[in-house]
Design a protein that fits this description.
Blueprint lengths: L3 E8 L6 E11 L9 E8 L9 E3 L1 H6 L6 E12 L3 E7 L2 H22 L1
Antiparallel strand pairs: 1-2, 1-6, 2-3, 3-5, 4-5
Length: 117
């Protein structure tokens, strides 16, 4: 599941309505002994611009991995939510996209940690 693209019933902060959207699952707490398992995910958007830490998915690759249009993995938009809100699996990142995401995610996390020092 980690590293896979799924549909997720996310609540939009602007109007509190739920929207089905693609997300990249980046973690879960399945091994911590809790009764209910949450997941960590980042948003995949087809309408957002690409920021410094984001990963762009071109049209050809998007279709190959199951997305409908070119998209952006919003690396800085990290959420924790109920695993029960997962819908169906869309696809897997290509090896190249995995490497890009891990690099950008690491850069972003290091930037956060450096600000604590």
């Amino acid at each position: 599941m980690i590293g896979e693209i799924w549909t997720y019933k996310a609540t939009k902060p602007s109007d509190n309505l739920e929207k089905i959207r693609p997300v990249l699952v980046i973690g879960d707490d399945g091994d911590n002994g809790l009764e209910f398992v949450d997941i960590n995910y980042v948003i995949i958007s087809s309408s957002a611009s690409c920021g410094k830490y984001d990963v762009e998915i071109n049209e050809e690759t998007a279709k190959y991995i199951g997305l409908k249009r070119p998209s952006v993995i919003k690396t800085t938009k990290i959420y924790t939510g109920s695993r029960q809100k997962l819908g169906c699996k869309i696809g897997d990142l290509t090896d190249e996209l995995k490497k890009k995401f891990m690099c950008k995610y690491r850069e972003y996390q290091e930037n956060i940690m450096n600000k604590w020092n």
